[in-house]
């Protein structure tokens, strides 16, 4: 084979070895190995320029030859330079800011051919190295972005936990007010019973002198004690409702939407009644679903409490809250609408944003509806919507009727 044909073959083999990988070390190791085998180079090395000078990326050949290699000066502007060491020839080739060096044992004429071969694929090799570096830089940027996104997601989750805690504390205050409404009547009844017993004792009429009076007193005391026990059970049940309301669901439970409404009205119903607000509940076709019942109850309670506040603020005559339960395709839906006249487009637009509230500062934190959206859409995989109905603000809670444990 004549020298020109041999040169073309070597060039072709080397060009084929360039760009086989976007991993810089892997690509350059493959190139140095191919070039050394085809040209008879004893060893080859690649240095990458960095802020500290040059860093060796890869080496091919016997390790005993490594001490013979050293990168040229960082400011060296030559593209290709020869050097003699230990009776052998070192050929340095600059590729952009980097350097490649080959240790050869050849005649000057052969070295000239090798330089011509390198010159034939120099630009391609430079572009391949740049592509590898760009690929590495892009990977590092992506990793940085992934880390930043993960940090932001973590911050948002912590923020949501904090907001949820704030929301629950706000609801606790509202719940205490509701408990006060529920307790007022039974506590008043217990007080009345105690006053009646004390009056009979004062008048010496409790024990009685005749058998008939004693029997009547016994019946009176038994009835009084039964009524007190009944009221105490009611008070205990109210406290249990309060405690369970704020106990997080660890697992979904099977429950029907009418049960959720009933459970919520047991908590807030008395407060609504005291404020003269009538509740109208209509139940159409529906079925039980698996969901986080306590969390959904919190959302329903929050919507009802908002409706109560708006009705009171606007002094609505003959106030009503209408609750409709029905099935729509795969969704089990709860519609809650008041008759307080509705909301402006500006309020509707920002309804579910954190810290947005139309109430006065002392009455609203702006967290309730934001957390309601988090609970329904993220925890329960449902939907919550707000719009204006025919009489006032309407909220729609949609829960997946196909979900199961």
UniProtKB/TrEMBL annotation:
**Single GO molecular-function term?**
phosphorelay sensor kinase activity
Q: PROSITE patterns, from UniProt?
A: HIS_KIN
* Keywords in alphabetical order: Kinase, Transferase
Give the Pfam families listed for this entry: HATPase_c (PF02518)
Q: Which reaction does it catalyse?
A: ATP + protein L-histidine = ADP + protein N-phospho-L-histidine
* All copies of domain Histidine kinase, residue ranges: 178-403
Tell me which domain of life the UniProt entry assigns to the organism this sequence originates from: Bacteria
Task: Tell me its EC number(s), please.
Answer: 2.7.13.3
Protein name per Swiss-Prot or TrEMBL: histidine kinase
Its source organism is Sulfurospirillum barnesii (strain ATCC 700032 / DSM 10660 / SES-3)
What is the taxonomic lineage of the source species? Answer: Bacteria, Pseudomonadati, Campylobacterota, Epsilonproteobacteria, Campylobacterales
